[in-house]
Design goal:
Blueprint (H helix, E strand, L loop, with lengths): L2 E5 L7 H14 L3 E4 L4 H4 L9 H12 L3 E5 L7 H6 L26 H18 L5 E5 L12 H15 L2 H8 L30 H29 L5 E2 L1 E2 L8 H4 L7 E4 L14 H13 L3 E7 L17 H11 L2 E7 L24 H14 L13 E5 L1 H9 L8 H13 L5 E5 L9 E4 L7 H12 L3 E5 L22 H4 L1 E18 L4 E13 L3 E7 L7 E8 L2 E6 L1 E3 L1 H14 L12 E8 L2 E8 L5 E5 L2 E5 L4 E5 L6
Parallel strand pairs: 1-2, 1-9, 2-3, 3-4, 4-5, 6-7, 7-8, 8-9, 10-11, 10-12, 12-13, 13-18
Antiparallel strand pairs: 14-15, 14-16, 15-19, 16-17, 17-18, 20-21, 21-24, 22-23
Helix pairs in contact: 5-8, 6-7, 8-13, 11-12, 14-17
Bound molecules: alpha-D-galactopyranose and zinc ion.
Length: about 650
């Protein structure tokens, strides 16, 4: 059974409301209640004075209403008394000064003082609740980002990180290429985080320094998760532990961060205003496929869109009819086994008082709650859904290293790592084919097609594994700006691009043109002519054959895309950034060659995803648009209302 949950903050509400709230949730058929993640100041109002009674009561009450609790560790917001006594627990901003208190997430994850207090509170929580049957799982902290902290502790730890990695200053200087702009280190003390203040741009710093700092900040966040996981496991070895991730500019390496955790989880806030740009249509599907790819298995949603957003922008438009259910089932279609809605009732105070929950301040039943009731009824009729998973034959490779490096050094206007990932994903998904977004370090076993958007920071291991994958019959699609730097973000001397990938691609880049936002054309061997932008690699083919050529300018008729038979497999090299339609044509060819069936009749914004299991499976059709959509599916006409999800068993029956 897919689990339905509610995010609830007992500490925000008068005690007299709790019983009624839980009773209403019980009536809905809610399985889990998530609580506690911001409640440290209530749990330990004064140093060493602990108050668990209220939480005991809330957990007990939830249990009496048939619900289990997902308990948050409260480390995102340590109490103010802690910072007053220990300013060194504060996070420091990129400019090297302590951040301001009063929002949230302002703790330094590496501060020894913070760790000491965190160990105490998390330890006590785990002792008290860890083995209790009422606890379904633990959420560590809240939406953890990379610990981009510049405090004295983090500065010292960054030095240590570099020292462990490079051993000597000489090795570090060489690896980072610090001779440029006279930046050679002659003592470890000179090494600091790359400090930023307004007017400074990241890309003025040595990219090797930036990349290692990003790795360090990400690793610090992962360490914080590991630290808390161990605290809980030591007291409750069977505890199910996770954390709620979100995409942000400060994203840690999720694959690493989730390593010690049991299940990947995500906060799912799909757009209430649907994107006009067709390139954005499948962006939420991408996010879900990414989260599933973290552990290559089903995942949880710990915050699911329950009402119009606010605070992080002005209040968003209200959700259209069908949106609450549609987006919830979209997540299920992509592999979510638990959906916890954010939040029961809209807060009446604080910055997020207009970031709406399911209920408004008036606490009356409304359209959103009615829609959730319908969703719960629908899911109750599909108990076998949770025995299924999303199995994909196509994978898109992701790496936070590429993301960091390409953010540190933008290559061209209209060319971004995230866009590269999304264009490839979009082309496959929009033809009704399941696709996983996985770590570049994950196994390729079980896949037939591996898509590699811009492998910029070259990992020779990944290159070797891709070669092997292609040689043994797989298809690889590699895009421009691959093989550009070594693992330290330093250029690779004396070799043509795409360096480590040249042999498998059977081509080399003679010259490139970073055309920025200019638009040009290319024509393909399949007859089409497409707009291109951002980047043009001028290819010289070795064993490869051309798949597309440039049109016009001084490189007319020079290949832009190549195709190479390599061993038993095929490798495509895409030297430019094309319009959306082009990727569909390329993917259609690559997928068909591997015997993967596509559906080409899906209108833009209609999504198909399949979950399968030992007892059969389900195919989800989701209309992620506000128009009704009519299309041919095989020989029959299919109609989907706005935001409608229809579910078919693999044997063809509608459920
Ligand atoms: C995030 C946080 C929540 C809340 C929501 C809504 O996902 O985890 O605490 O702020 O956003 O904005
Ligand atoms: Zn710090």
């Amino acid at each position: 059974m897919i689990q339905i949950g509610i995010d609830y903050y007992p500490e925000h509400w008068d005690r007299t409301l709790w019983d009624e709230d839980f009773a209403r949730m019980e009536q809905l058929g809610v399985h889990t209640v998530r609580m506690g993640e911001f409640s440290w100041c209530r749990l330990e109002p004064k140093e060493g004075e602990f108050h668990f009674e209220w939480l005991d009561e809330a957990i007990g009450l939830a249990a009496r209403h048939g619900m289990r609790v997902i308990l948050g560790t409260p480390t995102n917001c340590p109490p103010l008394w802690l910072f007053e006594r220990h300013p060194d627990a504060l996070q420091y901003d990129p400019d090297g000064t302590p951040t301001h208190l009063g929002i949230r997430g302002h703790r330094c994850m590496m501060s020894p003082v913070l760790r000491r207090y965190a160990a105490k509170i998390v330890g006590l929580l785990a002792e008290r609740y860890g083995s209790r049957p009422e606890i379904a799982a633990w959420q560590i902290d809240n939406e953890i980002e990379s610990n981009h902290c510049t405090c004295p502790t983090c500065t010292a730890l960054f030095r240590q990180y570099a020292q462990t990695k490079y051993g000597t200053l000489e090795a570090l200087n060489k690896a980072w290429g610090t001779d440029v702009w006279g930046g050679e280190y002659s003592s470890w003390q000179q090494l600091t985080p790359p400090l930023l203040r307004s007017g400074f741009r990241r890309d003025w710093y040595n990219p090797a320094w930036l990349l290692d700092y990003e790795r360090f900040c990400s690793e610090s966040a992962a360490d914080f998760v590991r630290f808390q996981t161990e605290l809980i496991r030591a007291r409750a070895p069977k505890a199910v532990i996770t954390t709620n991730s979100c995409f942000s500019g400060g994203m840690p390496d999720f694959h690493r961060m989730f390593e010690p955790l049991d299940v990947a989880a995500y906060d799912n806030y799909p757009p209430v205003t649907l994107p006009k740009d067709p390139e954005q249509l499948y962006s939420n599907a991408f996010a879900l496929d990414f989260i599933r790819g973290i552990k290559q298995k089903n995942f949880w949603i710990l915050e699911q869109l329950g009402g119009p957003m606010g605070c992080w922008g002005p209040i968003s438009p209200s959700m259209e009819p069908g949106m609450l259910e549609g987006y919830a089932l979209q997540a299920v279609a992509h592999g979510a086994d638990l959906l916890s809605f954010f939040r029961w009732r809209t807060s009446i105070s604080g910055a997020e008082m207009f970031c709406h929950g399911l209920l408004d301040h008036d606490n009356r039943k409304n359209r959103r709650l009615t829609e959730l009731e319908g969703l719960c009824r629908r899911l109750r009729k599909l108990p076998a859904l949770s025995d299924t998973t999303v199995v994909s034959q196509v994978a898109v490779l992701y790496s936070s290293e590429q993301e960091y490096a390409l953010k540190n050094q933008r290559q061209s206007e209209r060319f971004a790592y995230w866009t590269q990932l999304r264009l490839l994903h979009d082309a496959v998904l929009s033809m009704g084919v399941n696709v996983d977004v996985i770590s570049q370090n994950a196994s390729f076993e079980g896949y037939r097609v591996v898509l590699v958007p811009t492998h910029f920071v070259t990992d020779p291991n990944v290159a070797a594994r891709l070669e092997q994958f292609a040689a043994s019959g797989g298809t690889v699609v590699l895009t421009n700006r691959s093989g550009v730097t070594d693992r330290n973000a330093k250029g690779i001397p004396g070799r043509s691009l795409p360096t480590a990938f040249s042999a498998m691609c059977g081509c080399r880049v003679m010259e490139y043109d970073a055309i920025g936002s200019k638009t040009q054309l290319m024509r393909t061997t399949r007859g089409g002519c497409y707009r291109i932008t951002g980047w043009c690699d001028l290819l010289e083919l070795d064993t490869a054959v051309p798949w597309a050529w440039y049109v016009g300018r001084y490189y007319a008729d020079i290949p832009a895309i190549s195709k190479n038979h390599f061993g038993k497999g095929t490798v495509y090299y895409v030297g430019t950034v094309g319009e959306r339609a082009f990727y569909r044509v390329l993917m259609k060819e690559a997928l068909t060659e591997q015997g993967i069936e596509t559906i080409e009749t899906l209108p833009q914004g209609v999504e198909v995803c399949t979950r399968t299991g030992p007892g059969g499976g389900y195919r989800f059709f989701f209309n992620n648009t506000l128009d009704s959509q009519r299309f041919l599916l095989g020989s029959s006409h299919m109609v989907l209302q706005p935001m409608e999800v229809r579910i078919q068993t693999v044997s063809g029956e509608w459920v």
